[in-house]
């Protein structure tokens, strides 16, 4: 009986221990659940705080944007009638420096800013080119309307260089003429796109080139006329080529002459000088 009572006591203690252990595990489970719930609440609070900060930031941005727009509007109203405010470079400009060549809107910007805007869009092959105003959804620019003030690229005129250059104008905004290639360091004319014509203006140089071309063309024409045995009208100087038939030639000036000797000829088709009326030989 004592032994049986001892075993029962052991079983009772074992059961008590198991209950105590199960209770501790339950307590730990509840504690873990509470911690998870607490962490969830803290996460919710953290997200809510982040949302509030973001919302406050957006409102701050909107306030600053509204303030900038109001300041710009006030600034524009204070400008003299012959000036305007360019919202790209943020500077006051003369109306003569402005560009409004857009369809769909009347936003005005300075030509330098528009030139840079168009040049960048063309290089990116980004078409159509829209108005630079970020809030404008309808304005478009035509690159052809901007060609007058967009820097025009050209190649170095020296054949052993041929580097791509850009004519951006001189310091005073006028057309650039004498220019030095950044690659071969030789001087060229950015307007005529030829090696520098020292001592001659662009107009004088172009006239000289045209005269030289004309002289060369006339010389080549006369050489061809002599070789082909063409005749010149004694009245107006027009060159005439006889293919076949009579020596009698009626020029477009209505003067009649002999194709062989260029003497005046009448309607009888008889030349008094060389005394020929018909000749099929050259």
UniProtKB/TrEMBL annotation:
<comment type="similarity">
    <text>Belongs to the RBR family. Ariadne subfamily.</text>
</comment>
<dbReference type="InterPro" id="IPR013083">
    <property type="entry name" value="Znf_RING/FYVE/PHD"/>
</dbReference>
<keyword id="KW-0833">Ubl conjugation pathway</keyword>
<dbReference type="InterPro" id="IPR002867">
    <property type="entry name" value="IBR_dom"/>
</dbReference>
<comment type="function">
    <text>Might act as an E3 ubiquitin-protein ligase, or as part of E3 complex, which accepts ubiquitin from specific E2 ubiquitin-conjugating enzymes and then transfers it to substrates.</text>
</comment>
<dbReference type="GO" id="GO:0008270">
    <property type="term" value="F:zinc ion binding"/>
</dbReference>
<keyword id="KW-0808">Transferase</keyword>
<dbReference type="InterPro" id="IPR044066">
    <property type="entry name" value="TRIAD_supradom"/>
</dbReference>
<dbReference type="GO" id="GO:0061630">
    <property type="term" value="F:ubiquitin protein ligase activity"/>
</dbReference>
<protein>
    <recommendedName>
        <fullName>RBR-type E3 ubiquitin transferase</fullName>
        <ecNumber>2.3.2.31</ecNumber>
    </recommendedName>
</protein>
<dbReference type="InterPro" id="IPR031127">
    <property type="entry name" value="E3_UB_ligase_RBR"/>
</dbReference>
<keyword id="KW-0677">Repeat</keyword>
<feature type="domain" description="RING-type">
    <location>
        <begin position="82"/>
        <end position="280"/>
    </location>
</feature>
<dbReference type="Pfam" id="PF01485">
    <property type="entry name" value="IBR"/>
</dbReference>
<dbReference type="GO" id="GO:0016567">
    <property type="term" value="P:protein ubiquitination"/>
</dbReference>
<feature type="domain" description="RING-type">
    <location>
        <begin position="86"/>
        <end position="132"/>
    </location>
</feature>
<keyword id="KW-0479">Metal-binding</keyword>
<dbReference type="InterPro" id="IPR017907">
    <property type="entry name" value="Znf_RING_CS"/>
</dbReference>
<feature type="domain" description="RING-type">
    <location>
        <begin position="233"/>
        <end position="275"/>
    </location>
</feature>
<keyword id="KW-0863">Zinc-finger</keyword>
<dbReference type="InterPro" id="IPR001841">
    <property type="entry name" value="Znf_RING"/>
</dbReference>
<keyword id="KW-0862">Zinc</keyword>
